[in-house]
Amino acid sequence: MGASVRAPLSELRGSDVDALASGAAILGCGGGGDVGLLLPALRMRGPDFAIPLEPLDGGLRFFTAVTFLGSTTVLAEKPPGGTELPSAVSAVERWTGRAAQAVVPAQIGGLTALGAALLADASGLPLLDADLVGRATPRLDQLSIFARQKPELTAAIITSSGLTVVVDARSPAELESALRGAVANTGGWAAFALGPLPLAQLREDMIAGSVSRALAIGRVAEAAGAPLADAVRVVGGAVVARGRVLDVERHGDPLSFVHGTASLADAESGAVARLEMGSEYHYLVVDGEPAASVPDIISVLDARTRAPISTDELRPGTDVAVLVLPAAPLWHSDDAFLRRADPRFYGIDADPVPWAAS
Amino acid sequence: MSAQLSDLLAVPALQGARLFAGDAHVDIRHVLGRAGNPRRVAVDLVYAEPDTLLVLIDPVDRFDTRFDVLLRRARQAGVAAVAFAGEGGILPGPGSAALAHRLQLALVAVPDPWEASIHLHEQLAATDAPAVRLTWRVAEVGLAAGPDVGETLRLLQDALGYPLTLLDPTGRTVAGVAELDDANRAVLATSAPSGRPVQLPTVASTLLIAAPVGTGIGARAWLASEIPRRLPAEADAVAGALQTASIAIGHRLALARLVDERDARYRTGLLD
Fold first, then answer.
1. Residues 6+ apart with CB under 8 A from A160
2. Is the ipTM above a cut-off of 0.95?
3. What is the biggest distance separating any 2 CA atoms in chain A, rounded to whole angstroms?
4. Does A288 touch chain B (CB under 8 A)?
5. In this complex, is the C-beta atom of A74 within 8 Å of any C-beta atom belonging to chain B?
6. Going along chain B, which residue ranges are E strands?
7. C-alpha span between A113 and A24 (Å, rounded)
8. Phi and psi of A350, rounded to 5°?
9. For residue A126, what is the DSSP state?
10. Could you tell me where the beta strands, DSSP code E, fall in A71-187?
């Protein structure tokens, strides 16, 4: 990974928001929700606003993790009003009696990164330069802090219909199923807050530098002139496949993790690639050889505009480039982490393909 | 022995099989049937004989990355073609077809993979089983058919699976579609009266098999059919079946002649 990814930042400025959105969209791996929903709200703060960005090893005691749950399609049709995340944080603070000293995006991929930044700006809290996934992920019980520890599980959701639900769960799976059911029956999406959680206890199981990484990736993607393949090398990635989408098949079970497959052919080299996808892109095969898999980051970009293409927007005939970036090292460091994020977790009967940029 | 995939697909027993992607002119020497999902088959497929046709016995539920990986492993193992259940299930998409082209693999959709694997094996192993089955079927039809020559020819043709042509002793077409060139006609006209079928290569790269039809009187006729040239088992089967069919046709011809002669005598008698 390039040095620019790890360069510590002390604040997120107004001039950073476009790069943050771009990087978060790539880290969304085809899911995570449309960053364009919240980008205008951040842009409206103007170029001079700044949000303090705290490193994980700072002196803060408690943090709250936030994200959005539910259908990103419904979220696009019924966008958040801006009060939902602050209300969710207030709900968990009221219930636990503890005040959050910082907010962290539960996942850096997709619109959560921007939501957390807006929340930090609105609440006056610093934004932790971290997250709990390093990309986007479909389930709450996949968050990294649940892999080896059993933190207190107090969470709140504010549904799109205005309902507040606070849950004290006994396990991440219980939290996931309880809230997912509530969201499905109360409007389709909800703002989510978990915590406040003790930073000292969970620090080792969090992904450090996620906001900085999203910014670095976003700047690389937005850099005009340089070929994409060269540009992404700076952030440890590579364009592993490119070409025109031949077919996109979406299976009948939208509740399964993997419910689609798409293929593309490179007219120049003749290579044929195939993606397995659900909420995100999970698995990539090139000419029949496994090339990349979750938990590493597989993102599909429009070959002309470099705009990330979500899994539900992928269409035959589109010229695309498939970008692979390494997952946060934590996911490959311990089997406890990997088994929450490897292909088999998603129902793909295949071993993970650890990404090693050449 | 080996055979071109296109020849194998032309065998009536494999009716319904169709080339889905790739080149039909690849040589096939072996058939390998494998049960299980594509991932399981791919894992087990370490080595196959060169020019193998891999038959996936179980239907493929999704033509996804597992199928792509299987195609790759199959090619690496020496497989030249992959057959899958193509009836009543889903079919591969353009991506699978593109990968098959890329890997120079043929993809074949078959109605019943298990049955297809048996028929393919029989063809390539040159066993007697297809000949026995075909002769049996033709014999049944020949016994059951009525006295009409044309009707018997049609029923035998359906049983045989190939077009049947009735030729006169000089090789000229009496009924049916095949037209012999001069060289082959000369061969038939001068062949020794052994009673055994003759096999003649045609300019269309097929094999014409002609069995003599004995009527008891007069010169022999011929009952002929054309099949793909490079399938010895199929050639033997058709030759055997034609011998049986020729008895049935000869019998109907004799009956027809008997009726004609009786009718002629009756009409002659009316002149007295």
1. A70, A74, A75, A78, A80, A84, A186, A187, A188, A189, A190
2. no
3. 61
4. yes
5. no
6. 3-4, 18-21, 27-28, 30-34, 52-56, 79-85, 106-110, 165-167, 173-175, 198-201, 206-213, 221-228
7. 6
8. -155, 155
9. P
10. 102-105, 127-128, 130-131, 153-159, 164-169
Helix %, strand %, coil % for chain A, to 5? Answer: 30, 30, 40
User: Which two three-digit tokens encode residue B54?
Assistant: 């891999």
Which pLDDT value is given to residue A27?
96
Assigned token pair, A355:
């990404």
Question: Which two three-digit tokens encode residue B9?
Answer: 């697909």
Q: What residues of A are in contact with residue B68 (Cβ under 8 Å)?
A: 272, 274, 285, 288
Nearest CA distance, B83 vs chain A (angstrom): 17
The predicted-structure confidence for B104-151, as pLDDT tens digits, reads as follows 999 999 999 999 999 999 888 877 888 888 999 999 999 998 899 999
Query: Across-strand partners of A54?
Result: A128
Whether residue B64 and residue A265 make contact (CB cut-off 8 A), yes or no, is: no
What is d(CA A299, CA A310) in angstroms, rounded to the nearest whole number? 8
Q: How close does chain A come to B88, measured CA to CA in Å?
A: 17
Query: What number of H helices and E strands is found in chain A?
Result: 13, 17
Query: With an 8 Å Cβ cutoff, are B65 and A261 in contact?
Result: yes
Ramachandran region of residue A209, left (φ > 0), alpha (ψ -120 to 50) or beta?
Answer: left
A348 touching chain B per CB within 8 A = yes
- The predicted-structure confidence for A238-262, as pLDDT tens digits, reads as follows 999 999 999 999 876 655 566 799 9
What does the alpha-carbon distance between residue A68 and residue A105 come to, in Å, rounded to a whole number? 10
In angstroms, the separation between the Cα of residue B228 and the nearest Cα of chain A is: 34
What three-state secondary structure class fits A4? Answer: helix
At A129, the amino acid letter reads D
Residue type, A13: R
> Given an 8 Å threshold on Cβ–Cβ distance, is A263 in contact with B96?
yes
Mean pLDDT by 10 residues, chain B (272 residues): 88 89 93 91 84 94 92 93 87 94 96 93 84 91 91 94 90 85 83 80 86 79 86 87 92 88 88 73
Backbone angles phi, psi at A159, to 5 degrees: -80, 165
Q: Give the pLDDT confidence score for residue B92 in this predicted structure.
A: 92
